[in-house]
Amino acid sequence: MTKGLKLPNDFLWGGAVSAHQVEGAWQEGGKGVSIADVMMAASRTDPARVVTDKVEDGKIYPNHWGIDFYHRYKDDIDLFQQLGMRAFRTSIAWTRIYPNGDELKPNEEGLAYYEDLFNTLRSKGIEPVVTLSHFEMPNKLVQEYGGWRNRELIDMFVRFATTCFQRFHKQVRFWMTFNEIDNQSDWRFDHHLLQDSGLKLKEGENAEEAMFQASHNELVASARAVLAARKIDPQLQVGGMLAMVPIYPLTAKPEDQMEAMRAMQYRYFFGDVEALGQYPAWLRKYWRQKGYNVKVSAADADILRRGTVDFMGMSYYMSFATAERDDGEVEFDEHNDLVGNPYLPKSDWGWQIDPVGMRWILNWMQDRWHKPVMIVENGFGAYDKVEDGKIHDNYLIDYLRSHIAEMEKAVVLDGVDLIGYMMWSPIDLISASTGEMAKRYGLIYVDQDDTGKGSKKRLLKDSYFWYQRLIASNGADLQ
Ligand code: BG6
Question: In whole angstroms, what is the distance from residue 314 CA to residue 301 CA?
Fold first, then answer.
């Protein structure tokens, strides 16, 4: 038996998905059209997802079918229970509750759906962990309001959040506001701006300035949601959620070190605001140097200061590396300034595999933000082969084993205050970046191809049994 380090008995071992990647049923239960519903399928070799203004006939939108979790959740949750999962993270599709985002009254059918989902989880002893906005804002808010550059969205989001806290506070204790809010720091990639902030750039608009304004509005909305939750039920725990990707310097050269530090500052100011309640000094300087007019009122600053999160949720998949730029530009540009790390292998999708980076980033977060941490995503997308009804996915087991071993060191040896680990994902689902089904993350296989064809039958992979043993031993049996 490969010995792991046993974690505390109340550690939340679990798995995570998001609503739009699994539910399907995009037109059922009074649901409105979300930004995820207008994202077409892409592929590994051509990963940028085309986004149409509205749903167009004859185009392929994989989120329309998901894995049909909307209808099959009771059976799927049975499989999660048998796996031993203690926590399940999903999101609430904003468009099931407020179909267009700007209504004043919620859609009862949507609320009833999630109420039953959360009750089902609880009845099986599984703690629901819920994200409010996971890349799926109402499309009307993108098309007609201009996305998060518009401050009107703050009130709409807070209304949505408040409705959810009021209705579900008895079933759901752990909440997160915006999924991977920091992805938009790579604003040169349109896809991130759209998924995080619903921003479609206007002619002549400065994309970076628009990103900062949209991010600020989201950060205010997030802080107001934290304050609203506290009023409704002081037991609620509301977290931020960031994609944590350590950005290492390629060498010990001081200029490379400087570049890496700048890269970390640039990507993680979102966490500084959510956890520490204020913008870092470098960023306020940067806005001035660039001549950006990011509107941050005194009232906003007060809300950010008071509405700091209770914990930090994070995803971890890979690490990056960077080196000094030779073109004289000062700002960090994630799209162009990353370099390959010669010490790390990559997945078929080019994601660098770095288990030690998990321990590194957990320590970094604790030192910087001084908040409990929850890992709400960690996993490996790969091609699976079904042989005689079995899937021998040793590549996933290897990935999870090596990452969990490092996570356990961070907790047991380094003293990181970690609430739980939710791998991504207990079941195959639609990839967020490419819309593929072929990029499989699950412990449970779903018989469906990239075009939505297949029986949708669920099959248990070898990794399912491996994770089951691991949870039963509280992390000690990593064999
Ligand atoms: C995270 C997202 O970025 O990574 C998930 O929060 C996503 O929604 C996951 O699915 C894996 O990425 P991808 O693009 O392979 O699905």
Answer: 24
